[in-house]
Every structure is written in C-alpha cells, then in structure tokens.
Design goal:
- The chain is α+β, with helices and mostly antiparallel strands.
- The protein folds into 2 domains: about 5-40; about 45-150, Immunoglobulin-like (Sandwich), CATH 2.60.40.
- It is about 20% helix and about 40% strand.
- A 6-stranded mixed beta sheet has the order 2-3-9-8-5-6, with no helix packed on it. It has a 3-stranded antiparallel beta sheet with strand order 1-4-7, with no helix packed on it.
- Strand 2 (about 60) and strand 3 (about 65-70) form a beta hairpin.
- The longest helix is centred in the first third of the chain and has 29 residues, at about 10-40.
Length: about 150
C-alpha cells in the first residue's frame, strides 16, 4: 500500500488571499453604492403660504388663499418656513397659472414679494395659480390652489 502525501502549495495560498480580498472589496463597494442610492434627497419638510396680496379687491379665501378680481398687476407675498417654523432663506418660489408666472428667491426672513398679471379666459369665472417652492435638502412644496383669481 502506497501512501499519498499532499503538500501545501505555498504559491497558490498566496494567490488566493488577494483574490479573496478583491471579491470582498467588490461586494463591499456594491453594498455601499446601494446604501447611498437609498439615502433620501430631501429629508426636511417646508411649508409655504401666501401671506398677503396688494390689490384693492384682494381678500383672504376660505383656506388662507388670496382672491383677486380682474386682470391687473398684483403683488403677492409668499412666506416659507421649515418644520420648526423657522424661516427658510434661499428657497426658489414659482407662481404659475392664469396665463401668468412669477419667480423669486426668499430672503433671510423667509419671504419674497412677487408681481404677476393674471388673466382669466373668456368662458371661465375663476382660475387658480399654482405655487411651487424648491430648495436643496428639503422636499419640494406644491400648492395647486395657492391663489384664486376670479371674474367680478
């Protein structure tokens, strides 16, 4: 009977170690990339509201929106704040609708004044102006009925 001896292959052991490390590193990088993709872009919330409007016939509506009659230039003050009620500066505010649009950036007190001239189509008695507020690090804020313009 013959004995068979198995020798350790010293060179193969050295080659296995780096290959094992490379595989572990590739898996670790894939896991890190998956975690980075899952991080939410905007985790903080913000709120924005039309706080005042400057026009003779402007009046606050039922849910805090401002109502304006007839096509005239109107000034609107928009105020933004975060979940702690602190003002948000640098937020981009966009008002669109009623064949008009206006954009601006909030100041350090969280407010911005915007001027727009809305018009109402012939067969419609009232239209709404949409407000969109964006800032990096915050979830986007949208209000589809921020301002109502009505025919008088």
């Amino acid at each position: 009977m013959r004995k068979t001896y198995f020798r350790k292959n010293e060179q193969a052991a050295i080659l296995d170690l780096p290959m094992y490390l490379i595989i572990v590193m590739v898996i670790a990088i894939a896991i890190i990339a998956a975690v980075v993709v899952m991080i939410p872009k905007g985790s903080r919330t913000m709120n924005a509201v039309v706080t005042s409007g400057y026009l003779i016939s402007a009046s606050p509506g039922h849910s805090g929106e401002y109502r304006f009659s007839t096509p005239r230039n109107i000034w609107v003050k928009v105020t933004t704040n975060d979940e702690k009620a602190d003002p948000i500066s640098g937020a981009k505010v966009l008002l669109t609708g009623a064949n008009a649009s206006a954009a601006g950036v909030t100041l350090t007190n969280g407010s911005v004044f915007l001027q727009l001239r809305p018009t109402i189509p012939a067969n419609i008695d009232e239209v709404y102006i949409k407000m969109t507020v964006k800032l990096e690090g915050y979830k986007d804020f949208e209000d589809n009925e921020a301002i109502m313009v009505y025919r008088q």
